[in-house]
Hints:
The chain is mainly alpha-helical. The chain is 78% helix and 0% strand.
Amino acid sequence: MSPRRKDPELADRRREALIKAGYAEIIEKGIQALTIDCVVARAESSKGGALYYFHTKEDLLFAVLEWLLAEMSKALDDIAEGGGSPRARLAAELQVLFHSTEVNRKFYLVLFDFLTLAGRSERFRRLVAGFFEDCMRRDARIVEEGVKRGEFRRVSSATAAATLRALVDGYCLQWLMNPEEPPIDLYRDRCREVLGAFLLR
Length: 201
């Protein structure tokens, strides 16, 4: 009798289902309350199956963060590599980064949980730092192109990229913490105004 062949696509689907279930659990309960058992129940998997992919809770958390940042990076890469002027691409990026109340609330609740973890774990810190570095490299290339084409004033592309990242995360934090729950568009427009003043004056 020949040994059973593994189906890599099925394995990938099962692993992704566990990751997405982990993400959903963190949105609802936070990192501290997440358990492998809860993730298994939500994914309709088995504990043995979960432990095959993720030996520890930390491994599962790392996979959730890796998946979340990869999804965001893909969306931003699509914009950066798409058509349109540098100015139009930055505007499109802000639309994605200030997507909607529901999407942003989920993303930043989870991200801020992970930032606490990253402050104490070198493994998580490297992953988050890599994401921010990729964001800034991507934005620096767009700004450099805009400067060359005369769309932006002559600025340091590295400074502009770091400024954009700080504005986005800072405004999203202010929005998330505002008890009056203002529309996220207000913060997107503030970000656009400050960035425009920096790049266009």
